[in-house]
Amino acid sequence: MKIFKGFLLYLFFIITYESHGQKIITDRPDQTESSSTVPKKSLQIESGMLIKFVEEGDISLREIAIPTTLFRYGLSKVIEIRVANQYINIKEKKHFKRNFRNFRP
Q1: pLDDT, tens only, 50-80
Q2: What is the Cα–Cα distance from 54 to 11, expressed in whole angstroms?
Q3: What residue numbers bound the domain in which 72 lies?
Q4: Does 89 fall in a domain?
Q5: Is residue 5 part of a domain?
Q6: Whole-angstrom distance between the N-terminal and C-terminal Cα of the chain?
Q7: Which 3 state secondary structure label does DSSP give 11?
Q8: How far apart are the C-alpha atoms of 67 and 70, rounded to whole Å?
């Protein structure tokens, strides 16, 4: 069991050391729109969610984009492939204002 724990600790430090030197460019709350590219043969994954509420007059909109995922893969020093994926759910509500001023029994 001690050997297994030691191996896991060693693996953790190796992974941490290898990933620590990478430069990740993100422009949250949206997906990256940066002019820089990821290094050649590197894969960068951005994932998150976006929630937007809009109210105009008696109508309110709720838009949820989950998950928003962007995959970036470096083909060369200056060329990369980007693949984006997201599911958007939009709900609209109309609020009725009740006016009792002119109410007569």
Answers
A1: 888 988 888 888 998 888 888 989 999 999 9
A2: 47
A3: 24-94
A4: yes
A5: no
A6: 82
A7: helix
A8: 10
